[in-house]
Amino acid sequence: MILPTKRLSEDRALLTIGAHIIETLGEPKTVSRLWDQFKRSRESQAGDSLITYDWFVLSLDLLYAIGTIELQNGRIHLVKP
Amino acid sequence: MDEVSRAFFDKCFQVEFLKRNGASFQDFFSEIMEKRYPGSFQRIKPWGNQGDQKNDGYLVGPIKTVFQVYAPNELTEAKTIAKIDSDFNGAITHWEGKFDKWTFAHNSQLGLSPAVVKKLSEIQGQNPYIKIESWGREELRAQVFLLSEDQIVSLLGAVPTSRTLAQFGLDDLRPLILALSNGTVSDDVDFRGVPPEKLSWNKFSPGLATALKLGMASSHRVKAFFDKWPDPTLGDRVAARFREHYQALRAANLANADEIFWELQGFAAGQQRLTPSQEAAVIATLAYLFEQCDIFERPEQEGKS
After folding, report:
1. DSSP string for residues in B214-238
2. Do A7 and B235 touch (CB under 8 A)?
3. What is the mean pLDDT of each run of 10 residues along chain B (305 residues)?
4. A3 lies within 8 A of chain B by CB
5. I need a surface site. Which of B72, B129, B194, B266 has the fewest CB within 10 A?
6. Do A55 and B232 touch (CB under 8 A)?
């Protein structure tokens, strides 16, 4: 799930989606706004490779678990190194 | 008849031969013979207190044949010898002068024991003017494949053809995949491609090899199904279930790759009889898993996956 497998393409692996989320986090955003922007950006890049909201949230969970993002005042922030 | 259809008909015949006993096997035998020899083969049924007079089927023609069909749940040597003795002597009593050949048709998967063969040989020696023979699976299969394709479809049901393998639809694939989707996700990171010799290495019969090659031509549709399915783990979960089942079949020491293949096909189909299009979807799925090296062996010099 985190890394690509034989049947899970690179563009749907949680790590890849996480990288894409990070690119979209130029500033703190609510989960809804982040999801909207992620979807729009993804449609223009990945064609019809489908990512559901559940899978997007799993990727947020991964980024949180590895200390890359945090939630403050209802907004997702990148954690400063 | 194309190779793919023949492979499926062969498998259907094997299933019928193995699963039927007693009256059901006799009905199957009679149906084959009636199609093979219309107007010449007469099915015999017990009639009141006359019984069947030791004749389960009578073939007229230049050589008249009395058939005795014996298909118990379990074939034991002593009972088989007693049955042959009783039935042949009964045939002589009731049908003397009316037959030139006596055929003992049985459902043994492993053939007849030496003692049974000796008994038949003994009867032959004592009756030089009557041809004594036994029919098992191969003899009956030979009769089936002398029928027309329409007759075989009537006997065994419709099966996929090479064309069906190219034309199955999403409605055929979706329920099959979803029924097998409760495997566990594993991060399988062996990305080696399918070696070109993998098909020949596993020694499939020509018909199955052809079916697999045709399935591979459609396997991109299986991949596309997984790629577009909302749950990205579906492909891995389905593959994990097949891999697990394949390993269990390998551990059970089945005779050859064909047997394992048909067991996997049965696993995919569940208990139901599928339409030709659904069967084609199963073949494409198995071909996809074959290409992904989830099932069947890689050539040894490359190392196992």
Report:
1. HHHHHHHHHHHHHHHSSSTTHHHHH
2. yes
3. 89 90 95 97 81 88 95 90 94 92 93 94 96 96 96 94 83 81 64 78 86 88 89 90 91 84 88 83 92 86 50
4. yes
5. B129
6. yes
